[in-house]
Amino acid sequence: MEVSKIRLIRNDVSVWLVYAGRGRKFFDLFRQTRSVFLSLPGFDANETVFQSDELIRRHLAMSDAVGRWISGADSNPPSRRPNSYNPYPNSDAGSFAHELGNIYRLFIDAKPGDLVLSPTHGHFDPYLVGEITQPWRKEDDTPIPLLEDELVPTRKVRWLNTALARRDFPARVSRRLQNQHAITKIDTDLYQDIFGLVYPSYVWGQKSKLDVFGDSYTGTDPLQPYASALLVKYVVASVFAYEKGEFAAFQKLEPHAAIDAFYDETLVSEFGQNFNSPGKFTIIAAVGSLSILASAGLIVATADPAQPFNQTKTEAVQTVSGAMTGAGKAPRTQELDGYVNSMTAVNWTDVQKKLGKPSNDTMKTSLSNSVEVATHRAELNAR
């Protein structure tokens, strides 16, 4: 089974709104260079510069002079010696301070693993959504054609496979994603809404989210999702039982009895079905391991009963472990190993026949959001 990435999110993660220059003129360059940057032509920084407020100011003053020369506002080529510039210019001091704040936010405050959202113009145009991959590095300076090929410092970004436009975000998030600042740190109380749209699966502290898809969902039979819903509920209950140290007792029960005994609604903050996506179920629970263990449980439960069970378990561990990205992977992998290796062949082979096969037959159970993203991207492009 194909599995989308399971993001292990830092507790102190930040989300940044980064505009691609005036009129979004750098938007294509953001995507092509896999980076985000500010309009800082000639800002010739090194490791020492970002450790000194005065040096940052001098380099910014130099970059402003280079920018005026490129635009034709000044006819004489500017000095490329930062020490020749006043770090506290009197003219346009407000604008200088604003640019200075942008530099601090992008090159000092933003950390690897932080999420970046970069909007285009329209309400239906997909954002660029990605994760910062590196601290600032001199080697990442990039020539920008729209700035006469002047080098600018950049932050490298891994763009994610998403298709999210402003209209897809809840209203309170959408309002925050509109301002006039080059870079803005989004309020932390909006993060769960954002993560829920960006990541099909994530672990964030003691909260975990998992999306399960039925790629062959037709939308014409109201009972079509039933078998998949039952399977998902069973696997989630198995995770709850494992975390309580009662996995052996869980596996001795028939599937419906196991669900009745171990599915704990107090741990579930959301169990939703989205019929606008390919038969998608979304589960959010106050159990940090849910997305990891439930992914493995679903892989095992939907595997071929004729395949040797040890092979099924090995493939499940390898697949889910390979899908995890982010810090803290080692302890999560240990928990994954413990869960899967505690599975009994007698019980799970029975689950494969009674729950996994009906779910596959009716909805083609999947843990990959590739069909959802492609479908939604096509919808946006059609507008």
List the helices and strands and how they pair.
Elements: E1 6-9, E2 15-18, H1 27-33, E3 35-37, H2 53-71, H3 93-109, E4 115-118, E5 128-132, E6 142-144, E7 150-152, E8 154-159, H4 171-176, E9 183-185, H5 191-198, E10 201-204, E11 207-214, H6 226-243, H7 247-251, H8 255-262, E12 268-274, E13 280-285, H9 290-301, H10 309-323, E14 324-326, H11 329-341, H12 345-363, E15 365-366, H13 370-381
Parallel strand pairs: 1-10, 1-14, 2-4
Antiparallel strand pairs: 2-9, 3-8, 4-5, 5-8, 6-7, 10-11, 11-13, 11-15, 12-13
Helix pairs in contact: 2-3, 6-8, 6-9, 6-12, 9-10, 9-11, 10-11
CATH class annotation of the largest domain: Alpha Beta
Which whole number gives the mean pLDDT?
94
Order of helices and strands: EEHEHHEEEEEHEHEEHHHEEHHEHHEH
Output the structural class.
alpha+beta
Shape descriptor reads elongated
What's the β-strand tally?
Answer: 15
* Alpha plus pi helix count: 13
What is the beta-strand fraction? 15-25%
Number of domains: 2
Low-confidence stretches: none
Q: If you compute it from the alpha carbons, what radius of gyration comes out, rounded to the nearest whole angstrom?
A: 25 Å
| Major β-sheet annotation | 7 strands, mixed
Overall CATH architecture of the largest domain: Roll
Measured as a percent range, the helix fraction is 40-55%
Structure, described:
The protein is of the alpha+beta class and 383 residues long. 42% of the residues lie in helices and 17% in strands. It folds into two domains: 14-198, ph1033 like fold; 201-367, no CATH class. It is built from 13 helices and 15 strands. The strands form three sheets. Strands 1, 10, 11, 12, 13, 14 and 15 form a seven-stranded mixed β-sheet that branches. Helix 6 crosses helix 9 (290-301). The relative contact order is 0.15. The model has no long low-confidence stretch (mean pLDDT 94).
